[in-house]
């Protein structure tokens, strides 16, 4: 675009406010090219007998759609497919369609001979529970599409599980725990090269290692096991991805690929290694469109994670808007056995969210015996609050009654603005 034939315009397609999207945009600019954030206020695609016209026009697209956080993932991915009809798209939406679905990913990798944990998916409850008996105890139970540890449970009781959770397909997976501390390995691959790696450790009282849930990280880049690196590179190639965060776990028989995330976050990796994939992704996009980049500059920029909002950020980012909640909110809470809408109290004085045992039992969530650290018993639930879904670790509280069986604490509220004058949404007079 523009008068300089050497200048490439890179569109970053992303409908969520993420530091990674901003970092890629800023890296494109720092490399001497033009960046356009293709957010929901910006996208325009004209289709006619004359062809396809993009508004704004771009030469190449970086796909940063967070489909696992979207309420309409197929529709969002279809927008990426519109761009892919006329422009190079990294990652290609056809590859993302497989990678975003955890069981489809395992199927593709296993067919290619890449080691993965044993998993089983069924579309009927009875069939899934019959197969679960062959996995032993505990067993991992997770939704096929999820992120940041969302929709993942460690089940060590005999309660039946469902083939769907809150409308999403679910499956069971072999539980692998070969270390004293619960840990896994995240390897970030860009253009068939490892740009960084970290060990991720579960926070106290948890078995999940996701950084978004408070897990610790440790640099593994310089001492990366060869078998793990090889598996990560093969997995990324097999799925046809230009870049990915590959999660692996070490079993008695070697490294297993747990998941391949086509839009993995950068912040945990940067904290552990001082490296960010943003510049490498930006450079790859520029080169894919025929532009040139200074490899030494890409290397230097990879030592920074610039999350400053660019000038073309959506208005909600420029205005620094955050979701607003009142002193009480009607929320949807989900567990292994289903979902319930309940009245939740917003408790800014509490560090942790708390749940009544009766509600936890109704949802099929129970504390796992595989995690014991002397702390009060906790369960994992998925809470939809102010239109946003997130996995929450909640403390069982015997003193909570049926009228308000959930108290949402600061482990959730840090991402919200609390307006104590606000009534409960949906009540008369609100």
TrEMBL record:
NCBIfam families: rimK_fam. GO terms for cellular component: cytoplasm. InterPro entries: ATP-grasp (IPR011761), ATP-grasp_RimK-type (IPR013651), Rp_bS6_RimK/Lys_biosynth_LsyX (IPR004666). Coiled coil: none annotated. This is ATP-grasp domain-containing protein. Residues 106-286 form the ATP-grasp domain. It comes from Haloferax sulfurifontis. GO terms for molecular function: ATP binding; ligase activity, forming carbon-nitrogen bonds; metal ion binding. Keywords: ATP-binding, Metal-binding, Nucleotide-binding.
């Amino acid at each position: 675009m523009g008068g300089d034939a050497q200048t490439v315009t890179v569109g970053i397609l992303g409908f969520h406010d993420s530091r990674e999207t901003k970092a890629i945009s800023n890296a494109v600019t720092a490399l001497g090219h033009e960046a356009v954030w293709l957010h929901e206020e910006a996208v325009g695609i004209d289709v006619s007998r004359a062809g396809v016209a993009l508004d704004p026009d771009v030469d190449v697209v970086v796909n940063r759609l967070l489909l696992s956080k979207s309420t309409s993932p197929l529709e969002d991915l279809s927008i990426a497919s519109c761009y892919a009809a006329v422009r190079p798209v990294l990652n290609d939406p056809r590859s993302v369609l497989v990678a975003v679905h955890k069981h489809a990913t395992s199927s593709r990798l296993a067919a290619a001979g890449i080691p993965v944990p044993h998993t089983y998916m069924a579309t009927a409850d009875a069939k899934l529970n019959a197969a679960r008996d062959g996995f032993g105890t505990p067993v991992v139970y997770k939704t096929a599409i999820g992120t940041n540890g969302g929709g993942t449970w460690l089940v060590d009781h005999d309660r039946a599980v469902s083939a769907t959770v809150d409308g999403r397909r679910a499956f069971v997976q072999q539980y692998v725990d070969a270390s004293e501390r619960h840990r896994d390995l995240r390897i970030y691959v860009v253009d068939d090269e490892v740009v960084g790696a970290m060990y991720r450790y579960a926070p106290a009282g948890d078995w999940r290692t996701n950084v978004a849930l408070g897990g610790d990280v440790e640099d593994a880049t310089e001492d990366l096991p060869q078998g793990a690196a090889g598996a990560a590179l093969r997995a990324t190639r097999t799925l046809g991805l230009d870049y990915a965060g590959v999660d692996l776990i070490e079993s008695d028989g070697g490294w297993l690929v747990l998941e391949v995330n086509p839009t993995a976050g950068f912040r945990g990796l940067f904290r552990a290694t001082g490296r960010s994939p943003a510049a490498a992704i930006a450079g790859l996009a520029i080169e894919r469109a025929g532009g040139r980049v200074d490899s030494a500059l890409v290397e230097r920029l990879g030592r920074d994670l610039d999350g400053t909002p660019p000038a073309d950020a959506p208005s909600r980012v420029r205005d620094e808007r955050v979701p607003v909640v009142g002193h009480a909110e009607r929320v949807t809470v989900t567990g292994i056995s289903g979902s319930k809408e309940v009245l939740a109290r917003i408790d800014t004085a509490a560090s942790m969210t708390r749940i009544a045992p009766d509600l936890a039992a109704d949802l099929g969530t129970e504390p796992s015996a595989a995690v014991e650290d002397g702390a009060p018993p906790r369960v994992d639930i998925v809470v939809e609050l102010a239109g946003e879904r997130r996995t929450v670790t909640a403390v069982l509280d015997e003193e909570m009654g049926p009228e308000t069986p959930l108290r949402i604490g600061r482990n959730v509220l840090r991402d919200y603005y609390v307006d104590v004058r606000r009534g409960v949404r949906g009540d008369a007079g609100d």
